[in-house]
Design brief:
By secondary structure, the chain is α+β, with helices and mostly antiparallel strands. The chain has one domain: Glutaredoxin. It has a 7-stranded mixed beta sheet with strand order 2-1-5-4-3-8-9. A hairpin with a 4-residue loop joins strand 1 and strand 2. It is globular, with a radius of gyration of 17 Å. The relative contact order is 0.20.
Amino acid sequence: MAKTLGELLGDLHAERERTWEPAALQLNIDQRRELVESADPGRWIKAGDRVEPFELEEVDGQRLTLEGLTAHGPAVLVFFRFAGCPACNIALPFYDRELAPALKALGATLVAVSPQIPERLVEIKRRHALGFQVATDRDAVLARRFGVLYTANAATRAKGNFIGDVTGTGTWELPQPTVVVIGPDRVVSFADVSPDWLLRTEAGPIIDAVRAALPVAAQ
């Protein structure tokens, strides 16, 4: 039986416990704990919110708009951190296997979204031969509007390795793992935000949310 996304991410953490230096592991754990403790769900996008028009830059050059993404069915946006993020390199291939085929059958459009600039973000799509769209949220405009951005804590910033150089954004800001389902009426029918980047939405609840957003005749 195939592992769940949670089990795969749990394996990643277990491997780090075996192989990382204690100080580096604790830095990672502390940052994730701080993000959970400081999270303000009141800021997050939620079911029932109406989404204003937006534009994303697909890594292969296409411009993606809310109007286009919802023209023929629901849009599913999966926010992730950046192409080199280890957890993202587990989550996106998992979604390609376990989520994308079901969404295609339901007439929904899946887009993975990161603020990383397209010429660097494209690498994760190529590496895993992802069958869905991967797009840049330039300057994290949409993630900020949805209230799902976080900034690396002081300990992480003091360590160096400026994430803004990796993403090409010039900032320490990254999106929390987030899944948003937007119906053809441009109203959010499902939103799940995880401040801890090792906890991410399983495929099943997303598929159920998309199915519920469809007209009765299409379900």
